[in-house]
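U., I forgot to send this yesterday:
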Amino acid sequence: MSKFKSFEEMKQICEEINASHIPDGSRFDEAIDDILSDEESTADEVVANAYRHLLQTVDAEIETIEGKMKLSPTCRKGCAHCCYFPIIVTRLEAKLIWETMKQTMGEEAARQKITTYVENYKDKLSEITSLDFRTDADFKYKYISAQIPCPLLDTETNTCVAYDVRPIPCRTYLNYANPQVCADDLVPKEPFSYEFLYRYYMDGLHEVIEALLYGGEEVSFNYPFDLMEYDYLPNFLQEELKNEQPEP
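Result:
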């Protein structure tokens, strides 16, 4: 008996998850209470902690569902097929990822990483990050077909340079079928997306920031706009890099 789930099995699993295993949000409520109990950090630090904490809560919810459904991902370190997918985030998420990159890699290494990325893929990158993801029904296929890696991917090791703070789309897309399906098809039908967790995560970020602002705290970003503006991650990271460069 195959240890990999078939497409038909995944359809049944999807139906059962949607019918019986959508979370009630209580785990996110507990996370928010924990985040807001921090009275020593600055508002910006609390927001950065909230981003990490809520991402970890998403991971925990996925693990709970996997346990109930007896699922085990076939995704493995070094498998990077989905790292060529379009990753769409808010401006604030990109800022938080960028700050984490500078902290973990070092500022110069982080800047060089994005600079080299843009130089290597400049022509195709400009084309695919101009695709209208709101109106173009085929944008995902067009983007993936270009085979431009995510800016967070180390293409020598096939690992993520910001794995702990990788965005929601990266965390909620999981394969339980034969991993070969991801190699054989640009947009395989077998993988499962826990995209229903996005609402809890995003509502949590808004709730934390609004609580800080209502409490008289100040943040360095433009709320709510930075948490409502969406674009491709490469576009936002290029902007972050450009904003740090001294004017001539």
